[in-house]
What we know:
nine-stranded parallel beta sheet; six-stranded antiparallel beta sheet; 29% strand; globular; Beta-gal/glucu_dom_sf; Galactose-bd-like_sf; EC 3.2.1.31
Amino acid sequence: MKQLTLTILLTYLFVSVYSQQHSQIQNVENRKTTSLNGEWKVILDQYETGYYNYRYEPTDQTLNSKTNNNAFFNDYKQQRPDELVEYDYDLSESLNVPGSWNSQDERYFYYEGTFWYRKKFDYNKSKDDNRVFVHFGATNYESHIYLNGNKLGTHVGGFTPHNYEITDYLKESGNSLVVKVDNKRKLEAVPTVNTDWFNYGGITRDVTLIETEETFIREYVIQLEKGSLNTVKGHIQLDGIKLKQSIQVNIPELSISQNFKTDIKGLALVDFKLKNAILWSPNNPKLYDVQIVVNDQILKEKIGFRSIETKGADILLNGKSVFLRGISIHEENGERGGGDRAYSRDDAFMILGRAKELNCNFVRLAHYPHNENMIRVAEELGIMVWEEIPVYWTIHWENKDTYENALNQLTNMIIRDRNRANVIIWSMANETPVSEPRTKFLINLIGETRRLDDTRLISAALEKHTISEEPLTMVVEDPFSENVDVLSFNEYVGWYDGLPEKCDRVNWEIKINKPVIISEFGGGAKFGFHGNKNERWTEEFQEDLYKRSVKMLNKIPSLRGMTPWILSDFRSPRRVHPVLQEGFNRKGVTSEKGEKKLAFYVLQEFYNQKEEEFDNK
Ligand code: GCU
């Protein structure tokens, strides 16, 4: 009993202390919102002259910041003919939001630096004591946010949501929302300077105004507790001044109506039983209408309930062993502007539709948190999800700011998506070089992940090692494999390591009793380039590599999933062959426009077999 009390106390303390630090608003789409998407005025500011004075001091922190006519965040308009003002949003060009600047104007394609965005809007609150927030789905990479010359805050991280209260700064008309977005890559950033994807800069996801009651439901967890098929455990966090409230959680379809009380910090721990619930699964992605009621406020969300666990080498979904028929995906719509960040439900349906055609029940959303539409649409389609933060390759492991940055991105991702039944794996990293500082960095991230969500599996895309050439034997030698729930690794036998025939000679030695996911394998092909299968870059070469790869990997007894690299060709500045790559990584089983290569059908056939095998177990 003492242990249980201690656990409850620790959970309560952590959630209540931690939740004050993160004012992230969850479930934006089901709130009272106004979209600020559309045309924004922009200023390309390569030398950040709108931010730094000539002594390189940030003008938003100098005493005269509000009267500084050349601080771009003031959106100042020349009043008198003799005035010196060296910018003018109204006379500047526009860009669409959401969208990167790279893909909207070829002059900006390779630009890495600062753009200023300005949106004018009017706003009338529906009730005087209501509150108003501005929410960004993502801005890549570092952004500073201002309303009517008042600094709201900054956000670091190119793929995570951030929101700011604007209640006290809002005017009924002529509000000026100014955003400085800087996508310069930095060694100490997350990711660092070297990545194999395109550095799209800008306001790349939705911008939304949210109006709430004075005291409102900011975030919550309503999910099955780990290991249970019928007990819901979680919490509800209010934000405002009247924090001690009675709260009701209703699931009408299950005749559930549960009452809870929040404490002086606005926190209520949630605990109730589900009776006769249909559990979420790929074959039946059941979502229930859940209502959280406080006074006259009803916040709704569709929530699925399922259990995900490992047992020895098995991954158990609702107690049944599953095989994750997956594919890796970058957040890119290859058909918009020749390639731009995906952000909408339509984009999600298009991309995930291709995964469904492959007969996937799983996707790895690489290498950063994708837009929320991807996760919600995947949940509706019955597709399980691996999410990850861009702790990728040579991160600066011993820099505390780098760790805080990674932790913030991890926290934003988990708070946003921890009510999504289809999210089953949080991944800490991708192909990170083994060292003591790196493993310590990652173990600390695991600790934070389990505090934020102890119900989902934890993994990371590790690397393989060849321990002998004769017989050809490969293993995964990484101390971090002790810390994860699922042993995942990338392998490129037949592309970077030898030729496809080498797959036929490999013996895999997996010494750890955990489920194995091959988080990447594959090779490149240019769509429509046909020839002998021995000729690299032909579709036939890639087809042969896939045939030999799935045969090789299927011999691993503890294989429980794979996410070959990758669904579609994607932009990468590292891929410069003028004929075969043209700035694209060509490892897709489809082209960037979704045109299927021969390898697509190899993978589809393999997944049809795996579905048969596991559904008949
Ligand atoms: C790596 C990396 C990917 C990259 C791929 C490749 O494994 O994780 O981000 O695109 O290999 O080389 O194509």
